[in-house]
Amino acid sequence: MIDSYPLLRPWLFSLDPEQAHNLTLSNLDRAERWGLLRHLVEQPAADPRHLCGITFPNPVGLAAGLDKDGRHIDALGALGFGFLEIGTVTPKPQPGNPKPRMFRLPQAQAIINRMGFNNDGVDACVKRVRNSAYWQNGGVVGLNIGKNASTPIENAASDYVAAMEAVYEVASYITVNISSPNTQNLRALQGEDMLRSLLGSLHLAREALSDRYGVRKPLFLKIAPDLDQNDIKLIADLLLEFKIDAIIATNTTIARDAVQGLEFGQEAGGLSGAPVRMTSTEVVKSLKQFLGDTIPIIGVGGILSGLDAQEKVAAGASLVQLYSGLIYRGPKLIAECASALKAS
């Protein structure tokens, strides 16, 4: 199957990154409606993985952030992902940070973004998930939730609980995002007191929702790469204490060592892509050391090849997720990673 993305990428990279992002997704939607995507994109072989009560058709998923509002679920599902993670969504709509807020660093195969949880609000997203054929046909859709920028950090738990209540019926799993660097003070929730309070509130809310709906939805936590061993051990202990089902490692980094001197290298925001690969993998290794086989790990960060996906799994991940790698490699990366993990 011919990979056309290398021909399209120079043109897309000539556009503003956020404009290119939106244009690409709109064109994917159009191709999916016309029934073209499954013929244009190599589909991974079936390789089901079972964890947290969910059967994932293959171990390669879409990371949160690419489709914040659930506007493109059917098109993205047609690319061959084993699962999609939508969001981050917040209880109320918000515009996010001022533009420009996304920057490419091609020399480093990296992206910096400071989007700031721009989204239409959780209710609009849930409606789109319900209306998607992918979800209606049993596709695995995780919902990634966060707090509104206007909500004081000391009241963050109320936003997370409200968002969880809103997504509970439709989500295959729910991810609690406490690791974006683009909402003021959000990463403070990774500290012991705040994280214990937040997880305690979510634990109680999930028990009530489980009783109401007769099903216990898996709860995942997404953490930053900028953590030391003590931080990681603390988080691992709290995951066990509050019966969190899985952990996603990692979000973007605030470190800039790998992009010193590059154009846009000092822009504020989270750095993703190749520069975060090793740091993310080290966090996966540490989590595996502390958690063993008690809680599965989803590896994300700097996966630009099948070998990178294998590296995450060798470090201890059960599943992987892609985002920035898609910008640099295109949809072919999905099948490449799935093939590498099926062989491993």
CATH fold-type name: TIM Barrel
Strand content: 15-25%
In angstroms, what separates the terminal alpha carbons?
23 Å
The helix count comes to 13
Name the strands of the widest sheet in spatial order.
Answer: 3-4-7-8-9-10-12-13
Tally of structural domains:
1
Structural class: alpha/beta
CATH top level class name = Alpha Beta
As residue ranges, the low-confidence spans are none
How many β-strand stretches? 13
Percent in helix: 40-55%
The CATH architecture term is Alpha-Beta Barrel
Characterize the overall form.
globular
Task: Give the averaged pLDDT, no decimals.
Answer: 96
How many strands, what sense, and barrel or not for the largest sheet? 8 strands, parallel, barrel
The CATH H-level superfamily is Aldolase class I
Rg over alpha carbons: 18 Å
Write the layout of secondary structure elements.
Blueprint: H1 5-13, H2 17-33, H3 37-40, E1 49-51, E2 54-56, E3 60-62, H4 73-77, E4 83-89, E5 102-105, E6 110-113, H5 122-131, H6 133-136, E7 141-145, H7 156-167, E8 173-177, H8 192-213, E9 219-223, H9 229-241, E10 246-249, E11 270-273, H10 277-291, E12 297-300, H11 306-315, E13 319-322, H12 324-329, H13 332-343
Helix pairs in contact: 7-8, 8-9, 9-10, 10-11, 11-13
Q: What are the key terms here?
A:
single chain, about 350 residues, alpha/beta, TIM Barrel, 8-stranded parallel beta barrel, 3-stranded antiparallel beta sheet, 13 helices, about 15% strand
